[in-house]
Amino acid sequence: MRIRSILSLAAAAATVVALGACGSDNSGSTSTSSGTAAGTSAATTGGGGGASGKIALLLPESKTARYESQDRPLFEAKMKQLCPNCEIVYSNADQDASKQQSQAEAAITEGVKVMVLDPVDSASAAAIVNRAKQSKIPVVSYDRLITGAPVDYYISFDNVKVGKLQGDALVKKLKQDGNAKGPIIKINGAPTDNNAKLFKQGSNDVFSQAGVDISKQYDTPDWSPDKAQSEMEQAITAVGKDKIKGVYAANDGTAGGAIAAMKSAGMDPTKIPTTGQDAELAAIQRILAGQQYMTVYKAIKPEAETAAQLAFDLLQGKQPSGDVVNGQTDNGSGQVPSVLLQPVAVTKDNVTDTVVKDGFWTADQICTGAYKQACAAAGIS
Ligand code: BGC
């Protein structure tokens, strides 16, 4: 609530300036973009005055749709509103931790004043933070926690809750299907991602309390959908295609891989509930078609926009405006002031009330060709 009101104030103050901002450079894996609104307008930008400077945005991968299609553009747009004269130095590490290290070093050499970092590897990114600190560059840990180094802020979702929502939904569906104890296959995220540990923790708690039998479980390197597919193939061979009653997949990409494996083994995914996360368009379509049971919707807009606001505050050497920070997170190096947003479970029943209502996806985007009928049946038009 508090976060939303702060954001809307900032957004309102910046609307005028946004009209004058130019498009960003979208080419290559590293790029810079800057606003070109006249200096006089800068005074109207949410307190930015004539602020300027370079800000690094370092994202971890591009196989998961959210980073290039949502996190990056939403962060850039917000920054352009807040600080038309600021420049964003953007890089995507394509799941490669050492590439991310080099991208961070390059950004530091370019003279960034603040770094917003979503780490490929939560632990090894401590080296990036320590390097940034040598140059007095504050670091915002974005979406994934960086562990073992002094980061300035952490912005993410309640990630144990993400796992709990996935687990609760699957347990409920297994009961409805008369398969309360499973067995299920569990496809977790990347072992190097602190979030994956939290999703695992939240979901494992639910499964052990409900006494669900997990026949096979895997950590999926790089969160790669292809690897999830081969893990599921192995599970089907080991457990038997008629025995598996449900699949926990940690996100929509890995769910897509698991569902593809089930299809090629001749299994019917509409009969085997599968979880996910991210509310990706393809996942929402699969949910409507009955091929995926649920996903977790995390509103990326407030996450990206609040990160932009934090970065802008840090650029100006200010404390975050208002009481944006709503928690503290122990990252092994100390207590990190945190902004933790709430995730929401989505099944066929509440697609309209969640992602459509929020404009995360429009009915037109969801209800293309093959999904028209499923949309009509779910009352989405
Ligand atoms: C993010 C998820 C994403 C996954 C794979 C996690 O850290 O929270 O939204 O699906 O990484 O990139």
Automatic annotation (TrEMBL):
Domain Periplasmic binding protein: 55-319
Signal peptide coordinates: 1-20
Keywords, in A-Z order: Signal
Identification of the protein by name: D-xylose-binding periplasmic protein
Entry's Gene Ontology cellular component terms: outer membrane-bounded periplasmic space
Keyword Nucleotidyltransferase (UniProt): no
Species annotation: Capillimicrobium parvum
Domain of life: Bacteria
Keyword Signal attached: yes
A molecular-function term among this protein's GO annotations: carbohydrate binding
Localisation per UniProt entry: Cell envelope
Biased composition (Low complexity): 25-44
Region (Disordered): 25-49
